[in-house]
Amino acid sequence: QVQLVESGGGLVQAGDSLRLACVASGRTFSTYDMGWFRQAPGKEREFVAGIRWSGRSLYYRDSVKGRFTISRDNAKNTVYLQMNSLKPEDTAVYYCAAKRQSGVAFGAWSKNIMDAWGQGTLVTVSS
Fold first, then answer.
1. Each residue of 98-115: pLDDT tens digit?
2. Which of 37, 61, 83, 92 is the most exposed place for a label (fewest CB within 10 A)?
């Protein structure tokens, strides 16, 4: 099972950009589908973006489409989340998560089916 460590969070102003990174341990990273989730204070953890092991299939929740980009570099065991045009409502703890290849459609992804989690990185967007 992979172990995940996120980085890149911080305090920014509305309209700014941030890039989150998640580095995975182990040799099997390329066999995992990866996702970014976020959890705002008092809210449920929600699925933000996903990428298949091959990098060929992507998913974004509607509220981040056109602003966020997920990518991965299997040679570096790393998945990224480029976040542009940040809004105050993007403020949350962002978590990287891994899912062994299962063919589960992105639309069915939730926090309950993931196989491994990072510790989270806080993103705060001020207005």
1. 999 878 999 999 989 999
2. 61
For 16-59, write each residue's pLDDT tens digit.
999 999 999 987 999 999 999 999 999 999 999 999 999 999 99
Predicted local distance difference test score (pLDDT) of residue 48:
98
| DSSP string across 10-39 | EEEETT--EEEEEEE-SS-GGGEEEEEEEE
User: Contact, 42 vs 107, CB < 8 A?
Assistant: no
- Beta-carbon count within 10 A of 71 CB: 15
The tokens for 17 are: 């950009």
The sign of the CA dihedral 92, 98, 99, 105 is positive
Question: Pick from 116, 93, 91, 122: which is nearest to 35 by CA?
Answer: 116
Cβ atoms of 20 and 3 closer than 8 Å: no
Token readout for 60 is: 């974004």
Q: Which two tokens stand for residue 81?
A: 């989340």
The residue assigned the tokens 């998640």 is: 22
Amino acid at 38: R
